[in-house]
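Figure S4 source data
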Amino acid sequence: VETTQLVLPNDTNYLGNLRGGRLMEWMDIAAAISAQRHSNRICVTAAVDNLVFHQPIRLGEVVTLRAAVNRVFGTSMEVGVTVTAENQLTGITKTANTAYLTFVAISEGGAPEKAPPIHPSTTDERRRFRQALVRRNFRLQQRRASDR
């Protein structure tokens, strides 16, 4: 999924930067569309990991969000999102944010439902596929540690 937004005054804080909550909303929507397109199911957000604000996004910049399913784990899917910001007056583009979101595919009755697996074909897809398992194992390890 690729979507574009223009940062308007109502999207910014007192410093003229895009508010983090607005960006998180845009990222969640792009990731949800990606998960739903892959699974052909309604998908709900289960977790957000490694949300990193690399650089501020300024008023008037054009924000491009790219989301892709990295790997499927039964009913859950990891979706990676990369956010770039472009100053259209200077032509300068920067990577502003990255995150990994976990979604769960849901049946019409509201129960988790299996999603089709990912079959990575490019070098980049295979790398993202492998790294998704590492992140999932870490999330599960953290969950088990907090349950103690």
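Figure S5 source data
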Amino acid sequence: MKNFNQHYAEHKNLSVLKDFFLKKGYYREMKKKEYLVEQNSVAKYVAYVEEGFFRYTRTDNRGNEHIVGYVFKGEYVGDYASLIKKDITSLVTVQAVTDCKIYYAPLEEVRKFFYMNEDAQISGRVLAEELFMVAYTRLLDFYCKNSEELYIDLTNRCPDFQDYITLKEIASFLQVTPETISHIRNSINKKYHC
């Protein structure tokens, strides 16, 4: 899905990280609904996604599951908090939404990679900066935009997202009800098809 995370993974300084996964990582095919990591368990791997896509979810204290993100082809997948902070359990569940092809590496190997040389250190810093910008932009959008604006932004970033993500998942990701998404779609259709 094009441009979902503003294609941070295409940043020129991340090519060294991609090369690391392709050359030193382990190839694996994951089946739809298979978990890379589950919330509150110890994450073991980070991966580069060659094909397919993953969903990030977090279950709150009341047992409600919330979709908090997606990762697509050409991006990196894993619990980033576990990568930067040793000995913590995963804050999210990461699950394959489709059959996927990944190149994965143990967290400790990725940590070592970031200290190998200046290019690797730069890629680690750029990854952190880009992920911060994705999260920060999303946070600001939730404070400053209404549901329709968030939905329109999503359709502008990823025109084909509805081919991959259900109405219920879109609603969870945008923190609204499925009925709200239906109302937004109807409103947009009326505005642009009259």
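Strands lie at 26-30, 35-37, 45-51, 54-59, 65-71, 76-77, 93-96, 100-106. The chain has seven helices and eight strands.
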